[in-house]
Structure formats: structure tokens, C-alpha cells
Design brief:
Length: 283
């Protein structure tokens, strides 16, 4: 185990097939052999191979069940097993802010059905804009950089307005083949329409010593719109899967221990019966 740790510390440099893929698998297997294998070895020497395995499996699955339940109920992000965090993802850019040309129906009706976002959500959208419309931003995917990234720096544009539309669930009743049909949708896509304008850099060019004015929009250029879709992520899906799997394994382990106890009790009752031969119990 110490040798693997030393190799891990020395290989923490350029990523190759050895690090972190092969080395990660070796560290994982070494951890299983060190912490789970030693417990099983100790129990097997005292209880037998079969009973020791069942006790080890029940203890490990029970521990993982409690640990995954803790992951589900605690705040994120932590250094635990977790999925993708919720975020705003760009889906569409509208030239001159013409929402009527959007391919998304609810976005076309944002002026009638939309609601203005609050200050906290506007700050999140501004961060998403910085990672989307700025050339060379580290969070921008290559496939969307050519469509969205048009500014050189975050100070080259202003977020004038931001509206939300959609979201929530719905229950609708329709008629199919003459029979009423209830349709339940627990989630509708939630979109945010952000209106972005370029900064008037000429207004910021003031003589040395004069106060720098607040940035304003360049009225000679159109105000574009960037549409974001809210990705709810999968933050608690991995710990939920671990919790369900651990609960099933824990229940099966307890059931196997119960069956073994019934088998031993039946063997003892048979051996204790008058004239019954003693029957040894397999370890």
C-alpha cells in the first residue's frame, strides 16, 4: 500500500495512461484489499469463510447505505460522490434581440409570459454570459464558441435585461379515442433570455485625471439576445444510486444470515432429537 502511495505522489504530473487511469485502478484495488480484505480475513479465521463473508458484506453494505444517506442529506459541493451541478447552458443566439425568430415557442412569448429575474439569478446569468460570449473562455465548448463567443473581454459588453420563462410542472387533461387522458409532466424546460449590448468605448475615453463614467451601451450597434436553458444537473443521482444498491445488498446479506441461522437451528434440533445422529455444521 505504501509503495502505491509513493508511486501516486511521484506520478502526479503529466496525465498519461499510467496516471491517472492505471494508477487509479491500482489504488482502488489496494484500498479494497487493505480495508475490506483485512476485515474479512480476520472474521474468516474466527467465524469461517462463509459466515465471515456474510458478516463482512452486511457490515460494508450497511456502512455504504449510511454514508450515501449522509451524502444525500448534506450540502453540496463536497468531496463526495456527486453528479453535475445545475447551470445555465446557451442554446440559441438571436440577432438584434428578435425573440420572434426563436425556434423555441416559449421564448417567442417571453415579452408576454416572461418574468424579470432577480438580482441573484442575474449574477448567475452574467457569469454564464462571461463563460459563453467571451472568446477563449475556459468554460466554452468548441462546438458553440463560434456561435456565441464574439467579445474579447467581459468588460466589452453589458447585460441590459434578463427574463425567465417556462419551468415548473403541469397537469393537463386531453381526449384520446373518446376517453379522457391525464398527462402529468413534472418538469418543463426553463429558459432565460439575456439582452446583451456592446460597450461604448468612446464614452470611456476621458482625459487623464477625470473620473471614468459608468459603461453605457453603444447605440450604433444592435442589442443581441442569448437564450439559456436551465440544466438541473444530476447532483444527487450518484449517491441515490449508491444508496439504493447498498440497501439491496444490505437486505440480501441480512437475509442470507437469517437463512444460515435457520439452517443451524434445524441442524441442532435434528441432532438433539432422541436417537438422532450428531450432524456437524459447515463453517
Amino acid at each position: 500500500m505504501q509503495t502505491v502511495v509513493i508511486l501516486a505522489s511521484e506520478a502526479a504530473g503529466e496525465k498519461t495512461l499510467w496516471y491517472p487511469t492505471i494508477l487509479g485502478v491500482l489504488v482502488f484495488l489496494a484500498g479494497i484489499a487493505m480495508f475490506v480484505g483485512t476485515v474479512y480475513l480476520l472474521l474468516a479465521t474466527n467465524l469461517g469463510a462463509r459466515l465471515g463473508f456474510l458478516v463482512t458484506a452486511a457490515a460494508l453494505s450497511g456502512f455504504m447505505m449510511l454514508l450515501s444517506l449522509l451524502w444525500l442529506s448534506t450540502a453540496f459541493p463536497l468531496t463526495t460522490l456527486k453528479g453535475r451541478i445545475p447551470e445555465w447552458k446557451p442554446v440559441e443566439k438571436l440577432e438584434a434581440g428578435d425573440v420572434a425568430r426563436s425556434r423555441i415557442g416559449v421564448v417567442q412569448r417571453v415579452e408576454q409570459e416572461g418574468r424579470q429575474v432577480d438580482a441573484a439569478e442575474e449574477a448567475n446569468l452574467k457569469a454564464a454570459l462571461d463563460a459563453t460570449v467571451v472568446v477563449g473562455a475556459p468554460d466554452v465548448e468548441t462546438s458553440t464558441e463560434g456561435d456565441f463567443a464574439v467579445y474579447e473581454a467581459p468588460g466589452d459588453f453589458l447585460l441590459t435585461e434578463a427574463f425567465e420563462v417556462g419551468g415548473g410542472g403541469r397537469v393537463s387533461v386531453t381526449t384520446q379515442s373518446g376517453f379522457p387522458w391525464i398527462s402529468v409532466s413534472f418538469h418543463k424546460p426553463r429558459y432565460a433570455v439575456t439582452f446583451v449590448c456592446p460597450v461604448d468605448k468612446a464614452a470611456l475615453d476621458v482625459p487623464f485625471g477625470d473620473p471614468i463614467p459608468s459603461p453605457t451601451c453603444d447605440r450604433t450597434k444592435p442589442v443581441d439576445a442569448v437564450v439559456f436553458e436551465r440544466d438541473l444537473g444530476s447532483l444527487r443521482v450518484p449517491p441515490l444510486v449508491v444508496f439504493i444498491a447498498s440497501t439491496i445488498l444490505f437486505g440480501l446479506s441480512l437475509l442470507a444470515l437469517h437463512w444460515r441461522e435457520l439452517e443451524e437451528r434445524q441442524v441442532r434440533d435434528t441432532a438433539a432429537a432422541p436417537g438422532g445422529p450428531p450432524v456437524p455444521v459447515a463453517p
